Amino acid sequence: MQLDGKVIQEAILQLVDDYKFDPYQVIDIVKMGIRSAFRKDYADYKKAEIVVDIDEEGKILVYRQYDVVEEVEDDQLQIDLEQAQELRDDAEIGEQMLIDITPDELNFTRIGVQAAAQTIKQYLKGIERERFFEKFQHKQGELLRAKVIKSHSNTVVLDIEGVPVVLPSDGQIPKRIYEVGEDIFVFLKQISKDSTGITLDITQSSEEYIEAIIYKIVPEVEEGIVRLEKIARAPGIKTKVVVSSSDANVDPVGVMIGHKGDRINILLSLLDGEKVDYIEYSDDLETMVRACLRPADVQYFEMNGNKVRVTIPENQKAMAIGKGASNIKLAGRLCGTQIEII
Q: Cα separations (Å) of 85 from 74, 79, 94?
């Protein structure tokens, strides 16, 4: 395959249009691709340092680069001063000299073209990865808007700002049905980068997801008037949030619920049936235990070693324990102790 200026210019313009890259960046990538093809097809230069340039008309120029040295140890990469000065009078030790080796007709075999294409593809992917990383690295710890583009069994794929991202099964709300086309929010826990690519660790099932939503819908939390002391969650079943106020005139639970329940209803609408309890913080353990088990009525409370024992009316025990023991477990996590109903 023979490359001419028109072909090169068209290829560069197409890459700029397809990938929205800087034209100079694309030119450098194309140069590297041509260098790979040249070294593949021109056996005499396999070990040489090759430099490719492209002029304004798209003409390809190929140079062999030598280091000018006093004593040559590798004749593939080095040239002594005497030889260098035969080529250019002002050559000096330590400089890099370029010698034009452009063939009269630059032709590449199918294998050479494949080498060029592979090199270009690798560099384009690398730049895309860096662009992707830069796009999201400052969004760790934030809510991201996403659209469900695939949902089958436990596999959920989202479109996040034009990028397909998998929502892992442990990041999904249990038993929630994700409908293709629906808009959701996810919490970006972490973005990581390694040799295989870039990974967005996203979730809807963590306490951080709840916290991020609350910061969005309750200005008093963002302003520091109301504090989130602790969150305990059984995803898909119930979340309990302990709150406090820095202002004695502000009811933290009332602030969280909002006027006519508008704020808690927004939160509930994003949790697909999961229940939410707000509890006002107290540094008194008994007060906290009673509040965390409410509306069940704690009739008796005692400390027994490292656990708390409480008495609940028989007809309220199921409510105090909760689905799958979720309520009493969450209460124990918030209070920092095991709670036993007797």
A: 18, 10, 13
CB atoms within 10 A of CB 134: 9
Tokens read off for 286? 């008994």
- 246 phi and psi angles, rounded to 5 deg: -85, -5
DSSP states of 274-325: -EEEEEE--S-HHHHHHHHHTTS---EEEEETTEEEEE--GGGHHHHH-GGG
First to last CA, the chain: 85
Q: What are phi and psi of 25, to 5 degrees?
A: -65, -40
pLDDT in tens, 243-289: 999 999 999 999 999 999 999 999 999 998 899 999 999 999 999 99
- Regarding the domain with residue range 5-135, which homologous superfamily does it belong to in the CATH classification? NusA, N-terminal domain (3.30.1480.10)
CATH, range 143-203:
2.40.50.140
What does residue 186 show for φ and ψ, rounded to 5 degrees?
-135, 160
What CATH number was assigned to the domain covering residues 295-342? 3.30.300.20
What the block records as the tokens of 281 is 């913080």
pTM here is 0.73
